[in-house]
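Question (not urgent): is this output format expected?
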Amino acid sequence: MGAIVEMALMPWARRMQDKVNLPVRLYWRDGGTPIDLGRFEQPQVTIRVKDASGLPLLIDPNLDTLGRAYVEGLIDVEGSLADVLAAAHGLADNAQPENGLMGRIKRSFQHTRETDSEAIQYHYDVSNAFYGEWLDENMVYSCAYFENGDETLDQAQVKKIDHILRKIRLQPGQRLLDIGCGWGALVLRAAQQFGAQCVGVTLSQNQFDLATERVKRAGLQDRIQIRLQDYRDVKDGPFDRITSVGMFEHVGLDNLVPYFQKIRQLLKPDGWAMNHGITSTDANDGETAHGGGSFIERYVFPRGELPHIATVLRTLQEGGLEAFDIENLRRHYARTCGLWSERFEAKAAALRAMVDEKTWRIWRVYLAGCAWAFEHDEIALFQVLCRPSGRVASELPWSRGWLYR
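Got this back:
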């Protein structure tokens, strides 16, 4: 049987050598003859097939099938994460092209309040301790802001929050709604440093519990209210300011107009809102290239959908808001994810002890893969500062200098 499989694999391996020439060595069984996918004396990546069902996922590969084979334990991979990702993309580049719109169309029918709540809890309720091992000290799970480029992750996350709060021109005593408040870092900063009255909403029980505890420890119960609540159920507007940071990826493309309409409904006529979120670089709102979107849908963000920035701006306008300032922070998120991945690798033993092997593998490949995707323009991150459509914002200075003071 082994000889038969090797005979079948060799024509594929020769094609890979001729077409791609990857520094990859494949062992399809323990003790079997290694198969090289490139002409290199020393491979940078070694793939060991642990289960025969992993072979088809390798022979017709994309990022989804390769990620699935690794996460499910069908293969083991040796080599640096950078080399492994380069090899995976080299294999996926030569797979059959896929229609990225199909996954987007399929998921457009999957968004309900119940499924959205389930998806959020699936992603964020792994455990607070798990996230705490590789996030910054304030547990900010979104793109950091490297003002000078030499900041630590902790410094850059504080600067990101301040960058947002300056952009929305938050003033003492104003009411701020933070949609998808995470573990509370933004509302804590807004209350402590800007004197705001804050409401933070989340669908994650773990986030709600820890954010509530952090507010209590800070003695800010009179300024901050954390709610386990869907943003669509917030009724106590209007708010002077609204922030949504790393949340609208869960909304769904077909729900973007109602999402922005709800923000408009909750915002004062002279209020400001900030939408900070990941976007697709496919102008047609298609999937992330080479099956990456399918892997994320399967294992990380069920029912997540990324719009192109053009779609964001169109639906925002249709929702009754005017985009005032738009900033692409793609390179900032590439660095953020890279630092998360480095921390994850450094804490590998501790993290592996916290969760099952599959969960550990999912997060390992996801964080490293996201760093790659942001670095190579497969996804982006935009901050969009907006206000209700209508009169000219005459109270603002004429230049953009106020954003950076």
